[in-house]
Amino acid sequence: MLRHLLAAGSLGVLLVTTLICSATSSAASVELKHQLEGPCVSPITNNKIGQTKIGTDVCLDGKVQDPNKKDEKDDNNDGSDQSNQSVSSDEESATVCDWYPLDEDMSSTRWGSNSPGDGHLEGLKCYPRDLDLTKQGEGGGSALVDTRFVQNAGPIQPVAPPPPDPAVLAEQAYSELEVPPPTIGAGPDRTKLAVNLWTWLWVDNPGPLTNTVTAGGISVTVIAVLSSVDWSLGEPTTAGDTFAAGPPAKLTCQGTGTPPPTGYDWKAQPPCGYRFHWRSLKERTGGAGKWPIQATSTWDVTWQANTGATGATTLTATANDQFDVAEYRTVLVQRGAGG
């Protein structure tokens, strides 16, 4: 009987020893698995978000797997195939970790080679996840899990403005051009203009106009050249022998036109000219006795930037005048017998 008791006792001691060793081995295996393989769990969704660690059960993003829940699941694993087993999300309760400013004087080794003038220290503390979110952010009174130095943000560097649009500079450049109103010329003698004879028309040519605008490293130069003149000649375009009021006659001349040269042919059509058909009588001109004349010069404007961009537009200028148009008749005079 005693022998049986001793045998049973020895078996109990052996069984207890085996259980202790098995538990120790299992705990060490679980701890190692926590450090290397335990999943990181979101404290809000309770979903696995990765397995990268910065310490025991501490994820890089500051969220950890609760080791107690993990141990219970591992300890209940009987080694059977778990491929068809589902894991309840309640078994993956998480701990939340937050970084907090640390008040450390310069004697602390945590500063390393850094100084308070360059940044500040922060400590990582963890606390159990709690549905009462008002308790989160208090650090839970836990010990420091990790520390880090946070560099101060550098001064904000001014952002260089984009270069100006060459087209915008071109608009500024040609808006600054002073396009003169045309100076109207008529001949051969503007005091003796007559119907059915060519009236020479011209305007003064001031030559090309230029202007340059520079901003932000962009330079734009504009050049304006007088290209044509539109004439409104006052008298109506009535055909036939009976005068009738109507829209004024129009004429467009390329270039500026020219005054008649010395020795010109009075019968030849000038580069820019018009033959009046009606005298400028007072009853036809509202009492003025002169036809109202208007000349509008058109300037072709081109621009080019130092970037290679180019463009074009037109500018105009207008002047007004009046022409007194009469009529000349040829009268044959017979000479007397004395010559």
Class by SSE composition: alpha+beta
User: What CATH architecture of the largest domain would you give?
Assistant: Sandwich
The strand count comes to 18
Q: Give Rg in angstroms.
A: 52 Å
Percent range of helical residues? 10-25%
Walk me through the structure.
With 339 residues, the protein is of the alpha+beta class. It has helices at residues 2-36, 67-75, 166-175; strands at residues 40-41, 48-50, 53-55, 58-59, 63-65, 94-101, 119-128, 146-151, 184-187, 193-194, 198-203, 209-215, 218-236, 248-254, 273-275, 291-305, 310-323, 325-326. The protein folds into 2 domains: 22-74 and 90-106 and 113-151, no CATH class; 166-326, Immunoglobulin-like (Sandwich). A hairpin with a 2-residue loop joins strand 12 (209-215) and strand 13 (218-236). Helix 1 crosses helix 2 (67-75).
